[in-house]
Write a structure and sequence with these properties.
The protein has about 70 residues and is mainly alpha-helical. The chain has 3 helices and no strands. Helix 1 runs antiparallel to helix 2, helix 1 packs parallel to helix 3 and helix 2 runs antiparallel to helix 3. The N and C termini lie far apart (about 40 Å).
Length: about 70
């Protein structure tokens, strides 16, 4: 896998969070993908941190939406 493909896939996982029915396990899965990409040197630490921050932001938004809906 190359870095471009890894970045595209991570971006997709972060974007999917905004419509997740189960945000906690989906966040855990996406966070694992970020960790693995960083460990495999497909992305550097600052890039991984940006993806983590974006994922956390989407997670909080989605979690709030689901709590308000119930």
């Amino acid at each position: 896998m190359n870095a471009t493909l890894a970045l595209c896939r991570l971006g997709l996982e972060v974007a999917k969070m905004s419509r997740s029915c189960t945000p906690v396990p989906d966040r855990t899965f996406a966070m694992g993908m970020i960790e693995m990409a960083e460990f495999a040197d497909l992305i550097d630490t600052p890039t991984a941190n940006r993806y983590r921050d974006a994922l956390d932001e989407k997670f909080v938004e989605r979690n709030t939406q689901l709590k308000e809906a119930s």
